[in-house]
Amino acid sequence: MALCPNGHDSADPDWCDRCGAKLGALATSVTPTPPAGSPVAPATGAAVPGSVPCPNCDTSNRANALFCEGCGYDFTTGQLPPPVAPPSPPVSTPSTQGAAPGEEPERVPAEASPDGAPWVIEVSVDPEWYSAHGADSGVPCPAATSRRVGALGETVLLGRTSHRGGGGPQVVLDDDPGVSRRHAQLLRDAAGAWRVVDLGSTNGTSVGRHGAPVADAAPVEPSKPFDLTDQSVVYVGAWTALRIMPGDADPASLSSPEGGADGASS
């Protein structure tokens, strides 16, 4: 295990499991001494009973895992993880500091999607979600902002960067302390319909409806795809909200004040 600068033990060598602090050169490896008679834990990379090795990177995964924790390999379809694209530059400006909970982030007029992608993911800081779920993180909520990331390919990984190697996230959420390294994945089918899958994240994933109270958001069951619509808002971490829309769409044209949590697990 690693020891974070705030004194917490962390199984993840890059980010603290408890407070989300980045672990760098100051982090030290801590190997606890097992009590007498305790079984010896398997070495890193060794097979664990009930686990399945990834045919792409040989990482051990849970027997019922949909995706490889190491590289994102799809066990269901056999699809290899997409190449990692650099984060797209933001195309919007931050709102005034201290935005009230529930206040809409400031947005610029609609433009073509970054990277020319037919779909974009709008990534926002949501003060209302933070007030309900992220205030106990101990990290102040940043100003409400919004940026767009091109959704290239049929799968989009949400998470934090890691120095372990393997496929990194297409939507990088390093600033949010409540986001896991491999938090969730967005999946698009041939008809253009989107789903979200929680990859066993520490703090979970929820889906609500744009314009509805965050209290109406429904939790997503880990490893089970959850259907999305053009009104869906995906909540992860302490303050992050995401919406998927066509690359040339104006977010205001997709807004609707009606309804609660949408989508259905399948």
Report what the structure shows.
The protein is globular. The chain is mostly beta strands and 266 residues long. The two termini are 37 Å apart. The strands form four sheets. Strands 7-6-16-15-12-13 form a six-stranded antiparallel β-sheet. Strands 9-8-10-11-14 form a five-stranded mixed β-sheet, with no helix packed on it. The chain is built from one helix and 16 strands. A hairpin with a 5-residue loop joins strand 10 and strand 11. The chain has one helix at residues 127-134, and strands spanning 2-3, 9-10, 28-29, 51-53, 60-62, 119-125, 146-150, 155-159, 171-172, 182-188, 194-198, 205-209, 218-219, 226-227, 232-236, 240-246. The chain folds into three domains: 1-41, no CATH class; 50-81, no CATH class; 114-254, Tumour Suppressor Smad4.
C-alpha geometry? globular
> How large a portion of the residues is in β-strands, by DSSP E?
15-25%
Number of strands: 16
CATH topology of the largest domain: Tumour Suppressor Smad4
Largest beta-sheet characterization = 6 strands, antiparallel
Order of helices and strands: EEEEEEHEEEEEEEEEE
Please give the CATH class of the largest domain: Mainly Beta
Low-confidence stretches: 25-48, 87-116, 253-266
Helical fraction equals: under 10%
